[in-house]
C-alpha cells in the first residue's frame, strides 16, 4: 500500500499490532503488518531475550517496541495506604480469592528511568519504531532513537497532546479514541482522528480505538490516518497469552461490557467491566483508586492472584477477572491465528475501497 | 450516488440533516441532501404550517419528519417535586436569572399519543421519511406510514435495539454512536455501525455521531452505512435558530466540552457542558435529575429564561446556557450557510474516495 508511513517504515500493510505477546508481534510482522511489543511488563534482561527471539522469527522485517512513559505520576515508589490494601484483601476474600498482599516490583518500571533502560535494550535490536504511551517522549528517549535512526511514535487522546508530542520530537502520532482499550481519553476516534491529522500535518497519524476489521481500517484511513494501531483484536488470537478465563469473557462480551476505570492503573483505562471495576468505581466501601503507579502496583499484584484462581475454575475469581480491552470486544467471538486476522483485514480493506469506488462511479 | 437508500428515497447525496429549523431542512434538501425536521417542539397546527412552508421551498424534493417516541417514560403528566423546582429556582438565582417556575406544556407531546398526532399531520404533506427517536415505532405509526407508502426510520445506540426496531417494522436504521449530540448510548460510531449493519442486513443503515465532514461521511460509509445522519453541524449554520449566546459557545468549544448528562431530558443526552450540567450532575445540593418527561419539562422551562437572559448579554446566564451537540462541536468554528456545508461535504467526500483509491492502486 502507498502511504508515506509504509515507505518510511518499510511496511507492506499499515496495520500496527500492539501486543505484550512476542508470538503475536512476530506473526503480524511476518504476515505483512507491523508488530509492536508492549515492553512494560519486562525487565531489561527479559526484553533482550524476547527481542532476540523476535529477530530470529521475522527475518529482518520491521517491528517496534512500546514503553509506557507516564506524563505525571506520584513519584517513583509511593507507598500503598493500609486502607487500600485492606479494601483489596477484603474484596478478594468476598470472592473467595486468598490474597497475601505482596506488592511485587512492577511499579518500578513505570518511570522515565525504567523506560530509558528498556529503550537502550530495544535499540540494540533491529527495531523500526519506538512508541511511548501516556506522556510526551522524554528528551533522552528522542535523542537515543534519533541517533539510532529509529522513529518515535506517541499515543494521544486530544489535539492538544498531539501538538505537544510533535513539539517534543515525536515522528508519528497515534490518535486514540475513547473506544480503545487501555489508557484512553474521552473523544471518539471518528472525531479525534481528522482533528489530529489537521493539527500535526505533515506528521503522519495512525488511528487507534474501534479498529478490528478491514471496514474499520478503511474508515480510519478515510478520516486521514496513514495506518491503524490495533490492540484488542490480538487478545483473542491463538497466540495471545491472555488467560483462558479472561479470553472466555472477551469472546462472550458485547460492546457494552467495557468501562473506562481508574481501578487497574490509577489513570482512566478501558477494560472489561467486572466485579473488580464495580467494587472500586461504585462500591459503597471503596476508598477510590490511588494514583499511578500505586494503583497499578496494587491491582497487578491482586490480579495475579485473581487470574490464578480463575484459571483453576473458581467462579468468584472469574467474576473479578478482567483485562484492558476496547469496545471492539463485541466483535471478537472466535479464536483465530493472528496471521488469519491480518489476512482477513487485508481482504476486507480491499473489498471496502472497491465498494466505495463503485458507489461513487 | 448509488446506494439502495438513494434510490428508495430519491435522494442524490445520502446526507440526512436533522434540524429543528425549517430553513435548514429546505436548504439541505435543495442542495441535494435530505432534510429531516425535528417536530417535537411543535404543536400539530405549527407543524402543519412549517411543512407547508417547506413544501413550497423544495419543489417536490424529498424530506422527512422526526418525532420523539420515548420507549419508557414516567407516564403522560408527572408532577415536578417541589425539591426539584426549588433547586432549579435556586440555581438560576445564583447565576442572576430570575425564574418564575411556569412549567409550560412541553411534556405533553413526548408521548406516543402526541407523536401520532404529529405523524398524521406529516403524512398530509409530501414527506418521504418518518423517523422516530428513542423507542421502537408504535404499531399505529408503522401502520399509518405503511399505508401512506412512507418508510419509517428509527434511531438506535445498540445492536439489540436495532434488532428490536426492525422487528417492530422500521425500514431504515440510524445507528448513532456515543459521540453524537442528543440522546445517545455508550458505544462509539466506529464500533456500533458495522455491528448494526451486520445484525439487520439487508435493512439499510445510516450512521450518526461524529459526522460533520466529507472525510467522516466516507468513513461512515466504509463501515457499511448507506448514508449519514447529521445534527450538530447545522447548529452553527446561518439558517439555524440556535440562540447567538449558544452559537458563540459552540464555535469556541473543543471536543472535550460536551458531556452525556440526564440534566436536560431525564435520559442521557450529549450536550455542551455548562454550569447547568455541572450543577445537576455533580453539584453537592443536586437532587439528581428526574425521569423523562418531567426533567425535560423542568429544564426546557428554565432554559427558556436562561437563554433570554443570555441573549441580553448577562454573563451568569451565559454560563448556564447550553444545548444538545455532539463531539464534532470541536470542528465547528465558522458560521456558514447550510448549502455550503452540504457542498463542502460532497467535495471532501469525493476527494476522500479518490485518495483511498490511489493508496491501494
Automatic annotation (TrEMBL), chains A, B:
Domain of life: Bacteria
Protein name per UniProt: Nitronate monooxygenase
Glycoprotein recorded as keyword: no
UniProt xrefs under InterPro entries: Aldolase_TIM, NMO
MF term (GO), any: monooxygenase activity
Keywords for the protein's UniProt record, in alphabetical order: Flavoprotein, FMN, Monooxygenase, Oxidoreductase
Catalytic activity, EC: 1.13.12.-
Keyword Repeat: no
Broad EC category: oxidoreductase
Organism: Nonomuraea mangrovi
